[in-house]
Amino acid sequence: MSAFHHRRRRGLAIVGAFAAATLVLGACGNSSDGDSNSNVSKSNTDNDKPGKKVVIGFSAPAADHGWMGAITKNAVAQAKEYKDISLKVAEGTNDVNLQISQVETFINDKVDAIVLLPFDGAAMTSVARKAMDAGIVVINVDREFDSPFAARSTVLGDNYGMGVSAGTYVCDDAKGDKNKIVAEIAGIDSLPLTQDRSRGFADALKKCGLKVNNRVAAEFTVESGEKAASNLLQAAPKIDYLWNHDDDQGVGVLAAIKNANRDEFTMIGGAGSADVMEAIKAGNSVLKATVVYPSTQAADGIKLARLLVQGKSMSDLSEIEVPRQLKLAAPVVTKDNVDTYLPSAFRS
């Protein structure tokens, strides 16, 4: 899902929830005066040089929208950058039982690592733990497992942060007017990521005295976005701001807006598709901003899996181990900065 939602090697926020040691960001650490008491390790600058062959199994949900398609595309492209990676890609599926069997096949094949974006994190936890118990490095992407023992490292987008970014944009634009009407079109309500996005949005709005006046949920698809938006627009004759969680379902949302002949509000997207960014740049629609949810999370997972199997660390950190968790930033893209993010955006 886009929801489940880009490229961001710009500014990874390290969330060392399980880190064994303090992470020091920035310059490599050994001081020039040769302080023998320093426990800052020397940075590894040879990470991209070919090393031990690494066999990685990759599984993700079906590419039923642009963001998810970009997840797999970017993972495959990243693996091709390394001659020492052999990538086994399972067919994308939204069937939890099938995805479990895919992971079991990887275990039986004795792969070195598994990069897994689960359709359902909770449902995939048990088989991921089975892989870890078998000595296979598991990288959990986007949708978290229920147990910290099910993955060596986890790469996440910042769903709560997406909501905060969208809400902060609304607050800044509203300029203290507490009478603004705010609407929200969420993704799949049963998913924790959707709940986190909505919670972050509501928390940010509270700080400027606003709240969500009208809310509906869709399913991260064009069809569901159009249906949900049609219902919302009928129920809300006046809107000032509309935050749509996902730019893929946003294609349908925009169709509904056009059909309803509504243009009195400012729309903020979510995920950061190229289509939305181009609309923001053109400045000829209700779309004025979108919040990035990186679609290169699995590509990051591929790189981390390779480092872990080869016994390497992240060269830009002083920490000698790959962190247990990486949480990526959720920047807001507007007309002012769209040219920075557009080249790495996915297509809806």
Automatic annotation (TrEMBL):
Residues in the signal sequence: 1-27
Gene Ontology, cellular component aspect? cell envelope
Superkingdom of this entry's organism? Bacteria
Kindly give the Gene3D superfamilies that the UniProt entry links to this protein.
Answer: 3.40.50.2300
InterPro entries from the xrefs?
Peripla_BP_I (IPR028082), SBP_2_dom (IPR025997)
Keywords (alphabetical) are: Signal
Question: Which is an annotated Pfam family here?
Answer: Peripla_BP_4
Species name: Aeromicrobium ginsengisoli
What protein does this entry describe?
Answer: Substrate-binding domain-containing protein
Q: Where, per UniProt, does this protein localize?
A: Cell envelope
Q: Residue ranges of the Periplasmic binding protein domain?
A: 56-312
Family designation: Belongs to the bacterial solute-binding protein 2 family.
